[in-house]
Amino acid sequence: MPSRTKKFRGYRTHGRGKKSGRGAGIIGGHGQAGLSKTGKIGMLKYDRNHFGRYGFKRPQCMVEANRTINVGELSEQVERFVAMGFASKEGDAYSVNLTDAGIDKLLGSGNIGVAVNVTVAEVSEKARSKIVEAGGSIVE
Fold it and tell me: Using one digit for the tens of pLDDT, what is the confidence trace for 43-77?
């Protein structure tokens, strides 16, 4: 038995008349067309929450991201923190107050070669281990 396409070769409208064969007319539209009409059963079955809003989104003026610094950056910028007054040198170790500098969290990327005693609100585990290995300490 020949396929429908082969069967209608040579016939301009392929048996659909003039208008229903244009665009996506006979299949009910493209994409999400007809979800509230012909495609309603499919929408209710597979995507019940398609229409309407759910949950909430906090206003961007209320959302504040953590200000972070990596251990490697701290190692490079410790002298700058001393110059700005957020750090001091006590013997071989530096004492740095990142909370006063406006930094919320210390992250563990990079390496540190000097002993640093850091005061900060939050610390990642990797950063904590690197600071302690270098001979420093963390005060939260």
Answer: 999 999 988 888 888 898 898 889 999 999 999 99
SS3 content of the chain, % helix, strand, coil (to 5): 25, 15, 55
Number of H helices, E strands in the chain: 4, 7
Count of alpha carbons within 13 angstroms of residue 52, beta-carbon side: 5
122 Cβ contact partners less than 8 Å away, ≥ 6 residues apart = 66, 104, 105, 106, 140
C-alpha separations of 100 from 57, 66, 68, 96 in Å? 31, 14, 13, 9
Phi, psi of 4 (to 5 degrees): -60, -40
Give the pairing of strands 122-123 and 68-70.
unpaired
pLDDT per residue as tens digits for the range 17-28: 887 777 777 777
